Amino acid sequence: MSFNEDGKEILVPTVSPDGKLLDENQAIDLYHRTGQHLGIFDNPEDATIYAQTLHNQQDQMYSAPKQGVTLNINGRKVTVDDSFLQLSPEDQEKTVDEIASHLGAPKQDAAQVEQPSADDDSQKSLRSELSAMTQNPAKALYDQRPTWQKPLIAAQDIGNIIGDDLTFGFGDKAAAALRAPFTDKTYAEELAANRQGTQNARDRAGSAAYGADVTAALMLPRLLPAGQVANASAGVLPKLGRFAGGVVKGGAQGAAVGAAQAAGHDTDIGQGAAAGAAFGAAVPAALGIGKTVGGAVLKPVADAVRARANPSGYAAGKIAERLNNGGMSVDQAAARAARDGLSLADVGGSSTRDLLRTTTNIPGPARSRVASQLALRQMGQGDRLKRVVGQTLADPDGYLAAKDEIAETAKKIAGPLYREAEKTPIHFTKELEGIINTPAGRRALAKAEELAANEQVPFKQMFVNIADDGTATFKRVPDQRAWQYIKTALDDMVDAETDSITKKVTNDGRIINNLKNRMLSELDAQNPTYAAARKAWGGQQSLDKALEFGRTAMSQSPESVRRSLAAMGAPEKEAARAGAAEWIRNSIDQAGFTNNAILKFFSNRQQVKNLRALFDNDAQFKTFRQAIFAEAKKRSTYDAVRGNSTTARQMADMFETGGASEGFNTAKTAVTQGVIPAALQFVGSRLRMLGGLTPQVADNISKRLMTTSPEVRAQITSELQRIEQARISAAEKSQAVRALLGRTAAIVGSGAVVQAQQ
Q: Same domain for 559 and 461?
């Protein structure tokens, strides 16, 4: 269960650690007492998806049958142990492909898993299968056919349906009359067998049969003598006007066709004529506009056949089409996906992502699987970003340990340099004397003398001041080691003037810091070895400042960041990177599971420039930026599929399948060309929706677009490359379609084809 608190949806367990079931109040109380939760989300929908995913995983873990799992691979049942269910989807597909290779069966995108269940479930399933076979035996037998046979059977069925329509059912009678004398069957038996064959073709074709009927209706006017139609309507149509004349003409021909169909099929002629007149008046195919609208109707019929006979091939064709629409070749998409570990949906552009979104709008297995897959992938965005930050910039979770490690390494490097620098005498210039004579300088000098006395190592350097009268005054002055003590004392004074929370320095602190910088500049000029030692290790305070600088670098100007980094030594720069990595980690954690964490630290030019300055070299930043862009593409896929309201998703689905666009076009056609062309255009749009993205095709598309397995992606790429290489020009494609339709209709007769293409 989940509950909302402080604007976040918190998913909590309903079973206590000791196994006790908890009600809602007890579960919330347990969370408040122990902080235990299953995830914190931005909205209830994401919490529900995650909870359902956990539930499904637990079901697989605890409820999987111990006696094994039955896989249906290309019609052959193979039993494997229950560890198969514990594999990832990619590994399950690899296992299925390996089994298929041993069986000599072609590789399949998925295998149906049949799990043993109780006797009553098996009986219900058996009754369901028997019922389906009883109601549509032709379809059941068709489904058992080998894949390569299905396109041939589908094409033959479409041809048989069109032939039956064009001959008004008399084709079966003629064939029975011709066959009966040469067989041991009577004319009635032959006729019954022929009619059963035609009915079987319709049963197997399903929704595609309606497309065949419309195709025949468009072909029929081209077969009839034009003069007869013109004479029948002479003197009547001009008086009724274009629209009314079309209705009368369509109704008259529809009645004739209906009566002929009834006679050919031995049904009531009066009822056939009435039904034909009604259909003819509504959608008057006799107007002879098949040449302009026929293409819009015939293509969906072909799509329906392909989608039904070969859903896998049809799905691959849709993906290749979308990649081409996005201006990307299959090779380019495959290379980008392999380089960044992405899916084709991520790299294929907006058109390909829209296709994936459409598959989730179609009821079927793709809807829930893609939603869960994208939600889980988005939830892992933060961990992936932290990992790449750790690989290229600094460990975002170990900045404190990193700071200590940096300090120890810097001390080892700088130690010999400091010892060498202490051998160099420091001239007590007026600049240094003036600094020592300030109140802060005197306090720092006193602190340095105290440290030297405690170490029992007094200042080794003497200063001789010769007056104008020749008298000389000797006094002990700071040597290089003492000046280092004075620097440490001044650092402590600056820290005392710095707010521990805001890190703001008071005016006195800034004055003392400037005094220290003047002293260091003078010492560096006299002792270059000391300058090198200080650059290698400037003290713990310098590391702390560099770490804090990295935490706030994103809020500074790029010029300020570059200037500050230029003044740092290698240890300080490394500490600054650790601070920046810590800031990025905090930004990612604040984004939550389902928000886009990239926007928190890589969303404007200032942040990008500042991050680039913090990286040690161009190669590391390039790797980091490439990973960021890959995550941005993943997020684009997530937003395209899940970032729409219910209304928007439905509209997108309608546009994809042709519903919305055809609706607008139908209305436009009705206004500009009349109701009859609009009616036929609407019929074409319905066929397009029937023959397009079926649940099985959508499932195939979603699996291809979302896989990140290198082996599966290589197989898909090879398939898409074959489709791309076989692509021909628009003119050649049009000729191929016409030739295909001609071969399909040849079953009816060559005369019909010639007439239909005129």
A: yes
